[in-house]
Design goal:
The protein has 347 residues and is of the alpha+beta class. The protein has a single domain, classed as DD-peptidase/beta-lactamase superfamily (Beta-lactamase), CATH 3.40.710.10. The protein is built from nine helices and ten strands. The strands form three sheets. A five-stranded antiparallel sheet has the order 3-2-10-9-8, sandwiched between helices. Strands 1-6-5 form a three-stranded antiparallel sheet. It has a two-stranded antiparallel sheet with strand order 4-7. Strand 9 and strand 10 form a beta hairpin.
């Protein structure tokens, strides 16, 4: 074999390794297996079962559904003002947020809570923000809610169609012709934020159902747009899913206490979030082996991340929502912020 042929063969092998993935630990991602390790997670497919890869962290991904123009209001930057009666740890958390987000462009909504001591910091907690792919938390909840009600089984097979690929991103793992169980679809939806899994799952639940499910949880400001039963706001919320920091905190706190529907449903949701494979933000600089159960979301000007960091001393909820933000600056700030809050909580 000539030298050029050998070089070509090696290049093909290298490209294949990148595309298929190796399953190795990636900073910020779950330290566990990148594929669902549960034996019952079986995929029926005309092709080999794909392995998951982390999407590049250097490029913002604008979801194709985000057709509305999101115009941020006057920037409400976090400040280090400490509320009367705040504990020393709460004051420290607020100072850390100010350090990393205070001088960035855009508006930020922040919720931090030590889930063992109850110490809490809230910044712009009731201001609406684009949910971006955080809406997939609502979708997962509704799928689990309706499965619990007996409307379908989580082992029901879904056929992935061409129509489900309309909003697929460059690293989509589902392809037309695949058949996946609904619970396997949830794996792709949460751990890889698959838009194709979202489309397939929406054959079983709709946006009005999702909004109703959120209302049952007391999350009246976490909603999907386009629901004809919902009021109109006359702004970007009529076209984009939205939420507020206080309600994302409530969602994760309810999950943490295993009160999301029931213990089994809570455990399933937590399992998926603990295996999150998009780890380019709050979880990126955490010590290897530390798990964050979280969900991210991207839109133009919106870089979201929300979830629970499980530390040796305490478990800390951190939720960061944004609007009118710079992708590169905010992503780097969230990496540093996540580690600083982890260190402060576990010192």
């Amino acid at each position: 074999m000539s030298r050029s042929a050998i070089a070509l063969a090696l290049a093909v092998v290298l490209v294949a390794a990148v595309v298929i993935g190796t399953g190795a630990y990636v900073p910020g991602a779950s330290p566990d297996a990148v594929e669902d390790p549960r034996p019952e997670a079986v995929l029926s497919s005309p092709t080999a079962e794909p392995t998951a890869t982390i999407r590049p962290t250097s490029t913002a991904t604008a979801l194709p559904t985000a057709t509305a123009t999101v115009t941020a209001t006057a920037s409400a930057r976090p400040t280090a003002t400490v509320a009367p009666g705040a504990s020393a740890k709460e004051a420290l958390y607020r100072e850390i947020v100010t350090q990393y987000l205070g001088n960035l462009p855009g508006t930020f909504g922040v919720a931090i809570k030590d889930l063992k001591t109850g110490e809490t910091v809230l910044i712009n907690p009731d201001r609406p923000f684009p949910a971006a792919s955080l809406y997939k938390l609502s979708l997962t909840y509704e799928v689990l809610r309706e499965a619990k009600a007996g409307n379908f089984s989580l082992k029901t097979l879904m056929d992935i169609t061409e129509a489900d690929m309309a909003e697929a991103e460059f690293d989509e793992k589902l392809v037309p012709g695949m058949s996946v169980t609904i619970d396997r679809g949830l794996w792709f939806l949460i751990t890889l934020s698959s838009n194709s899994a979202s489309a397939a799952l929406q054959h079983y639940v709709n946006w009005a159902d999702m909004n109703e499910g959120m209302r049952e949880l007391g999350l009246v400001n976490t909603r999907m747009a386009g629901d004809p039963t919902e009021q109109k706001y006359g702004d970007w919320r009529d076209e984009l899913a939205s939420t507020i920091p206080r309600e994302m905190l409530r969602f994760f706190e309810t999950l943490y206490h295993q009160q999301l529907l029931d213990q089994a449903s809570s455990e399933e949701m937590m399992y998926l979030l603990r295996h999150q494979q998009i780890g380019d933000r709050l979880s990126y600089n955490l010590p290897e082996g530390v798990v964050m159960a979280h969900k991210t979301g991207n839109l133009s000007g919106t870089i979201n991340d929300a979830g629970i960091i499980f530390g040796p001393e305490t478990d800390l909820y951190v939720g960061m929502l944004s609007q009118g933000a710079d992708y590169e600056q905010t992503t780097q700030a969230l990496r540093d912020l996540g580690r600083a809050l982890y260190d402060a909580a576990n010192e």
